Amino acid sequence: MKILVTGAAGFIGSALSLRLLERGDEVVGIDNLNDYYDVNLKLARLERLQSYERFTFIKLEIADRKAVEYLFVQEKFQKVMHLAAQAGVRYSITHPHAYIDSNIVGFINILEGCRHNAVEHLAYASSSSVYGANTKMPFSVHDNVDHPVSLYAASKKANELMAHTYSHLYQLPTTGLRFFTVYGPWGRPDMSPFLFARNILEGKPIDVFNYGNHRRDFTYIDDIVEGVIRVVDQPAQPNQDWSSNNPDPATSLAPYRIYNIGNNTPVPLLTFIETLEKYLGKEAIKNLLPMQPGDVPDTYADVSELANDLGYKPATLLDDGIKNFVDWYTDFYKLA
Prior knowledge:
By secondary structure, the protein is an alpha/beta fold. It contains 11 helices and 13 strands.
């Protein structure tokens, strides 16, 4: 297949592109290579992909309507995995316009590209953040998610609504994937594994919000990629049992689906830190702080729909995932 991966220099995008190339697909990767975090890390991720003849990289801003239109017309993709976005809950508190430009304007440009160029399936990244103020655990795709607590979460919920509209109006199969706290080798420097590892090794305090009482459904990168590939390969289908009297948020009479991809095993933040300390061989200095605006206390994914429909459930143990991350981190940054 010829597949477009947006955000191909990102954490998930680069890992997904590598897997698609390894199995023989042709991948066109786009990314704007912005400086939200270290561009050198993004370039190093791309370097892993550029040895494949079936990989093409194009530097492109998805908010650029004309550039996206031209890309779709020229390349004629069969399927699209849309991962490009302005990420980060806390950054959305201080830089709201970046989320509208990338996550809303950029997403409509991708939808229009798919609509006008006979794309067989659009899969796209949503987020566990859409559950917002929900407290019923585990989080289910069948739950109402109308109470986001950050603009980032609101932009991802908006993506799901926009996708449904295109599935309904134009019969474009769309599948949204709510990722839960992705971690592992080649991860993002703005996320806790990176931030904690760097400060622990440098002997600096780590900021532990909510006094360490968070629980997160940490999901290893390889599990995320496997789930994404299974979704991409199976275009969304209408749910013929869908009822307008009792509407299911995760399905539709249109070819539309929403899935959680999480480890289905929430871990206390302090346990996560202890595991990181074990493999770094050094104890953290903890700066205990109250909960940040936009944060939620716990995340916990119900992945029964992913298992039932696609025969897959993430299963990497935190201990194994953290060890792999630390091994990569110390090698990549050439630490003893």
